[in-house]
Structures are given as structure tokens and as C-alpha cells.
């Protein structure tokens, strides 16, 4: 069975390559996390299964933050998820 001798230079080179790959993966994940995903009104209505009137009401009363550019209204996915989490109702347990 042939044996391979690994030198300290080989290990140092391996370490540098490994660190470089880890840095690249971290940078990819960071850029994905900072990327904002925006939805239009129709997409939000489909997502939440609500009507245009209900969506308008959520905008007007400040429940759902939005961005308006010209005549277009956009909603950030993270903000929608945040509103859903903040308004989660836990069932009330009754004593028997």
C-alpha cells in the first residue's frame, strides 16, 4: 500500500484554501440575507388570501408597511412575516 507524506507546507496550503472557501460561503450567505424581496399588491393578496379592500385597510391603519413609487405599491416580505408573527394569537386554555 503506497504511503503519501504530508508536509507542513501542504497543511498550510490546505488551511489557506479552506479559509478562502469559508470566506466565500460567508460572503454569499451575507449577500442573500441582506437582499430584500418585494411583492406587489396582487402577490400579497394571494399570499395572505385577502381582498383588495382588506389590504387597503391594513395599509391605511398602519398594520402593513409599504413603499409607494409612482402609482405602484410594494411590500417587503420580511415586514409581512413580522406583522404575522407579532399578531399570532395563542389559544386560551380553559381549566377543567
Notes on the protein architecture:
By secondary structure, this protein is mostly helical. It has a domain at 38-86. The protein has four helices and three strands; from the N terminus they run αβααββα. The radius of gyration is 25 Å and the shape is elongated. It starts with 7 loop residues before the first helix and ends in a 10-residue tail after the last helix.
Give the SSE layout.
Elements: H1 8-34, E1 38-40, H2 41-48, H3 52-60, E2 67-69, E3 72-76, H4 77-86
Antiparallel strand pairs: 1-3, 2-3
SSE arrangement, N to C: HEHHEEH
Q: How much helix is in the residues?
A: 55-70%
Mean pLDDT: 88
First CA to last CA: what distance?
A: 73 Å
Compact description:
By secondary structure, the chain is mainly alpha-helical. It is 56% helix and 11% strand.
What keywords describe this structure?
mainly alpha, about 10% strand, 3 strands, single chain, about 100 residues, 3-stranded antiparallel sheet
Amino acid at each position: 500500500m503506497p504511503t503519501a507524506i504530508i508536509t507542513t507546507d501542504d497543511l498550510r496550503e490546505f488551511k489557506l484554501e479552506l479559509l478562502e472557501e469559508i470566506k466565500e460561503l460567508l460572503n454569499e450567505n451575507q449577500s442573500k440575507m441582506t437582499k430584500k424581496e418585494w411583492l406587489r399588491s396582487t402577490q400579497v393578496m394571494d399570499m395572505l388570501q385577502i381582498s383588495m379592500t382588506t389590504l387597503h385597510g391594513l395599509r391605511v391603519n398602519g398594520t402593513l408597511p409599504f413603499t409607494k413609487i409612482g402609482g405602484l405599491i410594494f411590500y417587503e416580505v420580511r415586514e409581512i412575516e413580522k406583522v404575522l408573527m407579532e399578531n399570532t394569537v395563542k389559544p386560551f386554555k380553559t381549566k377543567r
